[in-house]
Amino acid sequence: MEPRVAKKYATALFTLSQQRGITDIVWADLTVLAGVIKEDKRLLKVLAAPQISDESKHELVRNVLVGAHEVVTHFVLFIIDKGRTDNLVRIVEIYGHLLDEARGIVVADITSAIPLAEPEVKRIVARLETLSGKKVRHHLHVDPEILGGVIIVIGGEIIDYSVRHDLSRLRDALYALKVHEAV
Q1: Residue 181: how many other CB atoms lie within 10 Å
Q2: Does domain 104-176 have CATH number 2.60.40?
Q3: CB–CB of 47/58 below 8 Å?
Q4: Per DSSP, what are the bridge partners of residue 135?
């Protein structure tokens, strides 16, 4: 499924859940569904299989989503009927992003060469919240190849304070220098 199609489905579900005041309930049910799908990839294959009847697929979904809000159940059944099960997980991810956006939350991926101490993380997150004007949910990553410093990806922007980046800029500056021979 094309990403923009997944976004259309996620946006439609999010809009409906907002109108009904059930965004958190829908999110909780979608999170459970995504967990089931990630745990057993065969579920999506079964839901996408043309040789399995829609009635059987609907029954399977109803069994998997026992206790889920009817909006979620009907949405997943609709996705099956439209043949869009191939990217159901992506639809759930986009719904989560839309929910974060509505709550004024931005996600930041913070990569460092070594694990950061809690006070460092708090200081970085506080600075990001000040800069963005939003609540920041962060994910920490360790990549020794950046040598030192941090790389932050937030709201589609990259803030690169890594040693690797600084060395790369220094190398480029040195290559750009015109060196004259002494006579």
Answers
A1: 4
A2: no
A3: no
A4: 105
> According to the model, what pLDDT value does residue 181 have?
65
Rounded to whole angstroms, the Cα distance separating 135 from 152 reads 15
Distance of CA 112 to the CA centre of its chain: 20
Partners of 111 in the beta sheet?
141, 151
> What is the per-residue pLDDT for 163?
87
Q: Residue with structure tokens 């500056």?
A: 173
Q: Is residue 65 a contact partner of residue 76, using CB atoms and an 8 Å limit?
A: yes
pTM: 0.75
The answer to whether domain 3-101 has CATH 1.10.520.20 is yes
Q: Fill in the DSSP letter of residue 144.
A: G
158 and 131 in contact (C-beta within 8 Å)? Answer: no
- Cα-Cα end-to-end distance for the chain: 66
